[in-house]
Hints:
Layout: E1 26-27, H1 30-43, E2 55-59, E3 66-69, E4 73-77, H2 78-82, H3 87-102, E5 120-121, E6 131-132, H4 159-175, H5 181-196, H6 211-223, H7 234-251, H8 254-260, H9 266-279, H10 282-295, H11 300-312, H12 316-329, H13 335-346, H14 351-367, H15 372-384, H16 388-401, H17 405-418, H18 424-441
Helix pairs in contact: 3-4, 3-5, 4-6, 5-6, 7-9, 8-9, 9-10, 10-11, 11-12, 12-13, 13-14, 13-15, 14-15, 15-16, 16-17, 17-18
Amino acid sequence: MRCAAFLNKIIIFICFFLSNVSALEIIRDTELEQYTEEIVSLLLKSNNQDTMDFNIYFVKSDQINAFVTGGKNIFINTETIIKSDDYREYAAVLAHELAHILGGHIFNTSIEISNLSNRALPIYLLGIIGILTGSADTGLAGVMVGQASVNDGFAFYSRTQEASADQAAVKILCNNGIDGKFLNSFLKKIERLEVTNLSSEQNYRSTHPLTQNRIDWVSLSLENQKNCDYTIDIKLQERFELLKAKLHGFTHPHYETEAVYSSDNEVDLYATAVSSYFKGDHSKSIRNMKKLIEKNPHNPFYHELIGEIYFANNDYNNAVNYQKTAIKQINKKNDLYYMMIANYLINFEKEKQSLEAIKYLKKSIQLNPKNAYAWFLLSRAYAQVNSIPLANYATAERYFLLGERQLSYEFASKALKLIEENSPEWYRSNDLIEILKKEVSKR
């Protein structure tokens, strides 16, 4: 993996050290992203901050952890969400990490970790999963973000910073209608897990001070807060239970998911639908999803998932129809949703569907121009309708995002020879060539 090109001077080390390889596997899921954005927006109300100012990444991991890096980047391990019994515990974790950023506790790296988004290759396995990676051949191996000695590990926060962040998190929660006691609720859960999990793997304990100290800090802060005994938001909790079920089905073994989610209620059907899908039992997955859609026909995430299951079975018509319904039902435009339906349409390998895919991909890229996989799909769609100059242009954009400067320069040069003059793509191809000219000439 090309890690050295990521970070030349590392102030904050972010490393997962396994036996032979270190990997940070970032997942993308629309339901997860939108729910988290909603909670963060709630937490930022009293600070007059915009959620768009923060980048939140989700790490597929069976370890409970959350951490921040320079550039207002927050990383949340999936197990942190799964182990939270209440959305307010999850909100407390987010409040703590927001407190680190708002308190200025994190130094910037020489190349901010946010550059990960510039190298994005979403390989979604559900709608759930996209992996930020440097190049296609790394596939599901994930991402290495910097190399350092094992002793350095994660960014270890000082006691002063942790105490400050915990105190600020309580204020953030209480000032925005969430009971601050749930920060302690989460910490006590961590403390109980520490007793039974004494492994040396990187986890919440290894990147934060002693949990009992933190419980004491939070308790003192809560004593100074008044009117923080807020009631639960039932709708947020119901959505959180569904989200947890989905993540459990994706990240845990099938037998474990079936043991935990064994009834036929909505949450359990969702978990086992996801788990069965990854196990390869698509017929059970589809049966579960149809039951869920019958119970709640207006949930876009149900339509998204069943559409992807049909796509995995080469039923492109059903895949497209369900995804179109998901796009209509979702309350916010989403780059992944447009990208997914475009991928379904491209697989028809017919001109009509390819032209439709191009329209969706342009919408996707407009929302997220740093999605390298969307550019890859756009190049495929252009090639299918014999627009080779535009396919070359899209390929140039993709290689630029992946850091393949020479290839980006070559494809931009090819595009410029035949692309329509004065078109947006013509101007952008010129821009790419000018940007890359000096860098390529030095090689």
